[in-house]
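Reading group handout, session on sequence-to-structure problems. Before we discuss, look at one worked example. The prompt was deliberately terse, the way you'd type it at a terminal:

> structure GntR family transcriptional regulator

The input record follows.
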Amino acid sequence: MPRLARDAPTPGPRAADVVADAVRAGILSGELAPGAPLREEELSDTFGVSRHTARTALARLTAERLATAEPYRGVRVSSLDDDALVALQQLRCALETEALRIVRDRGIRPPDVDAALDELAAAEASGDWAATLAAHARVHLALVEAAGSARIAEEYRRLDSEMHLLLTHVRPAYSSGALTEEHGAYVTEALRDPEHAVRAHLEHSTRAIIERRRAG
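And the output record:
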């Protein structure tokens, strides 16, 4: 397992949080590749925690679908195939559409979305894909959180971690500034007609990801 940054864990549930946070960061940064094994004994040695604590941390990552537990293979970093990507995007579509329907009916503009778009523009201009992914996530989350539904936002964040994992390893072809321009237009259209805009946007991104995968 690659060397992971870690804080000194404290006893009890907090120790499992520290381990899960460190492994999650390694997964989402690409340091831990899809399919990489996540072994209790290695985490226990690395973080100075019990096997039970390491097992609890892995269970949390499995619940987030960032890791997959398979019989006779143990726990590994998740790998999303095309079918899993389509299913993920369909669920994102349902959550984001409902959140934006609530926002539209309230007649409000999400308060954080313009700042998130500015962050996306700056990240994209820098050429930093990790920063671009984080900013991209903030644009979508700003739209979802504006609905004021803690449950929708919680479920959406969990799905966004899966999407972040996928996009860490598959970078669709975008010219400089195109992602920001696309999302600026998407925000405008989604606030007017969420049912159509969200579906069209996510279907477009799904095609772009699959095409990039097949291109190698």
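Points for discussion. First: The CA atoms of residues 104 and 192 lie 7 Å apart. Second: The two ends are 25 Å apart (CA to CA).
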